[in-house]
Amino acid sequence: MVFEGRGLMFTFLAAMYFLGPTWRHHERCAQAEDGVVIYEGLKVIAIGSTFTPGSRTVLAQPQWDRGGNTSVRYTSTKQLVWKENGYFQRNRDLGQVFTAPRDFVLSAIVLRTGPADGAVLHNAPGAVVFVEFFEVTGTPQIDNNGTGPGTAATHGFSKNHRCDDHLVGVSYKPLMVIKGGPFPDLPPTRDENGQPTGQRAGNLVYLRWAIPEGIRPSFQAEKKYAFMVGFVEPALERGFTLANHNAAHIPDPPALGDRHDAYPLGWAIRREGNGLFPPTIVPSDRPPSDPQLVQTLLEQSSFPPGLSRYLLQPGTNGYPDVDTYRDLEFYLEE
């Protein structure tokens, strides 16, 4: 049986091979719409401020930067914040590419909230979240966006030449989405107005994203895959950050897997807005007066409706940040 959605073909034969023999018998029946297979039952558990990988840990990337935050967020269209760089702040899902060190079945992903005041926004606790998996193919190559060493990046949190570098030559095939949660009841580090609360209990907390038995994905040795996390529904001040290691500020020439790379066998990824890169840019300290242009800008910063969001190709390019030289702190458990 084949499902077709917006040009993407997804076969149940491939799905059953990927998910393993227990897939057909799981009580949480999959929805198959627009080429996306959806499951329920994801659980997200706050472990605490310390975590020691155990015998079930197949893969670990433990490095993080004390100034490093990267944000997952989902805000409704009417509440998107205008950035004076010339666009509305884009909604964003985040994830990581990894290479399977051997054949294994995944039971959980452990991630960590970030160290700054955006670690847990006001409407993150209690929100339904998801994790999506991809098969990654192709040969990654760095596009330096025309800004080599000694020149300034066109966008990014700094003007270092690496800050606008992005990867090309890679494809991400959606495999499955598992919804659930809720996001743990951590003390928000920002209030409903986006102001710091002074609470630090939500910073640098390890979260286990546990997959229910029966729909746990299996991975093959030496192949590349990716996971991505995000919120299912929007709300004002709904977001959290992930601890990570980022070498975009290094002045060295563009390179994958160099001595600054925390995890040479993968890279961080993101999905922003409707997937258009670069977005329309209208630099100003306030949105333009043309209502049609405003609508276009809002659509570019918002996720597309329905399940078509899960079909958007992730990548490493973003506004303002880029993930080419970033790796999340993450742990995969079998």
Explained architecture:
The chain is built from two helices and 21 strands. With 334 residues, it is mostly beta strands. The chain has one domain. Strands 3, 4, 5, 9, 11, 12, 13, 14, 16, 19 and 21 form an eleven-stranded mixed sheet that branches. The protein has a two-stranded antiparallel sheet with strand order 1-2. A two-stranded antiparallel ribbon has the order 6-17. The longest helix is centred in the last third of the chain and has 11 residues. It is globular. The N terminus is likely disordered.
User: What characteristic shape results from the CA principal axes?
Assistant: globular
Number of helices: 2
Stretches with pLDDT under 50, minimum 5 residues: 1-27
Quote the distance from N terminus to C terminus: 30 Å
Tell me how many strands there are.
21
Give the topology string: H per helix, E per strand. EEHEEEEEEEEEEEEEEEEEHEE
What's the pLDDT, averaged over the residues?
90
Proportion of helical residues: under 10%
Q: SS-based structural class?
A: mainly beta
Sheet with most strands: 11 strands, mixed
Assembly of the depicted chains: single chain
The value of Rg in angstroms is 19 Å
Measured by DSSP, the beta-strand proportion falls in 25-35%
Domain tally: 1
Keywords:
single chain, 334 residues, mainly beta, 11-stranded mixed β-sheet, two-stranded antiparallel ribbon, 21 strands, 35% strand, disordered N terminus
